[in-house]
Amino acid sequence: MTMILIRGAKQLLTLRGTRSPRRGREMQDLGIVSDGALLIVDGILQEVGPTRRVENLAIARGAREIDATGCVVMPGLVDAHTHLLYPPFHAGATGWGEAQSPGMENVTAKRLEHRGRQFVEAMARHGTTTLEAVTAGLDEAGETKLLRAIAALNGESIDVGASLTARVGELSGRSDWFCGEWMPKVKRRRLARAVDLLWDGDPGTSAVAERVAAEAARLRLRLRVHHEGPGPEPLRLGIRAGAATCDHLEHATDEDIAAVAGSGAVAVLAPAHAFHAHRGQYAPARALVDAGCAVALATDFNPLLSPTLSMTAAIWLACSRTRLAAAEAICAATFNAAGALGCAARIGSLECGKAADVVVLEVADYREIARSLGHNLVSMTIKRGAVIYEQGQVARRSGLRPVA
Ligand SMILES: [Zn+2]
To answer: What's the rounded Cα separation, in Å, for the pair 388 and 181?
Structure first.
């Protein structure tokens, strides 16, 4: 039996509460325990509560102790939308389509996996314990290479899931293959748990978009709608089809907001993408929360359009640019992001019986997370009870004079 006792947290953010994604005002309740502690047994949270109670339990005797005095301890961050792996970019690429040249045939599976591992480990150092990687929407050989690399990375340090991209505009003449062969094959091989519908709303391709959505439902793959453009059709189709998430929403109108609020979909927002590639056109996060939507945050990580892999950077942007309160942004980056991936029963909050995915941050108050950009505040990341990252020391040089 492996036991860890994390004790003395200035603020333990439990996010305890309902099992479904939090909406509206519910997002403000972080379930904070002052001077809190966690007892982890074999990777599962056994006890959560005040330090004085948890550390005195007979079962806590002999546990490895982690002193979190003065720190914030919270659930591991969940990045619900990344482009973790992608074809190599050629110099000067300014758009995603161009970025795919020269294509996947020039990158070996080993190289792809190695590059992905570097990103995943950097994410773990920034407190992410679960992430979802959206594929690039290539041909079968290219997508297979991406999906196999994602599967190889899954569980090495953190959980890495995959969403299969359906580029509807490029499927004309190929929808029989995509819906009839490729989607069932991906499902059978368990290479993805969701389908990401990328459609611009063109009426000429609406039948293909409908077919992808229907096939996703038949195969029990979660449906995600990549809603980056101004037209309402992709969002409407997704909601009609029972989409699990609506992603991006930079162009969402009041009607779109009402439609998302009235649905079961989680709005997955990517403020770093808006910051970098949309010239500051952010999704209306404040209005979405006020309308009663369940909002999640993601990095949308990819070096071309959203070059950050830090979920705390996404929290900073959501607060400083889209007026979310720090508590709302933290809920969006943990519990609601887990809900967006269909994993909220296992992760996203610190409650007994859940996986011990935990982050220790070098701040005394959670609101400081929303005031910090580019400073890694994470001192420890724990995945299912195992310490996967611990901050290192900077050596102090003694007896050396600084160079003037
Ligand atoms: Zn994206």
So the answer is: 39
224 CA to centre of ligand 1 in angstroms: 11
Report the distance separating Cα 111 and Cα 198, nearest Å.
27
Nearest to 137 by CA among 94, 186, 196, 82: 196
Q: How far does the centroid of ligand 1 lie from the alpha carbon of residue 65, in Å?
A: 40
Strand 77-82 to 128-134 pairing: parallel
Distance 309 CA to ligand 1 centre (A): 13
* Ligand 1 centre distance from Cα of residue 68 (Å): 35
H helix intervals, 126-161: 140-153
Instruction: Indicate the range of 12-21, 85-94, 233-242, 273-282 predicted with least confidence.
Output: 85-94
CA dihedral 222, 271, 298, 10 (to 10 degrees): -140
State the distance from the centre of ligand 1 to the C-alpha of 87, rounded, in angstroms: 15
Q: How confident is the model at residue 88 (pLDDT cuts 50, 70, 90)?
A: confident
User: Taking all residues of the chain, what is their mean pLDDT, rounded to a whole number?
Assistant: 94
* β-pairing verdict for 194-198 and 222-227: parallel
Calculate how far, in angstroms, residue 246's C-alpha sits from the geometric centre of ligand 1: 11
Preceding peptide of 50 cis, ω within 30°: no
Q: Is 360 exposed, middle or buried (0-12, 13-18, 19+ CB in 10 A)?
A: buried
The rounded Å distance from CA 144 to ligand 1 centre is: 19
Token reading at 249: 């929403």
Q: How far does residue 235's CA lie from ligand 1's centre (Å)?
A: 15
Cα of 50 vs centre of ligand 1, distance in Å, is 40
For ligand 1, the distance from its centroid to the CA atom of residue 385, given in whole angstroms, is 30
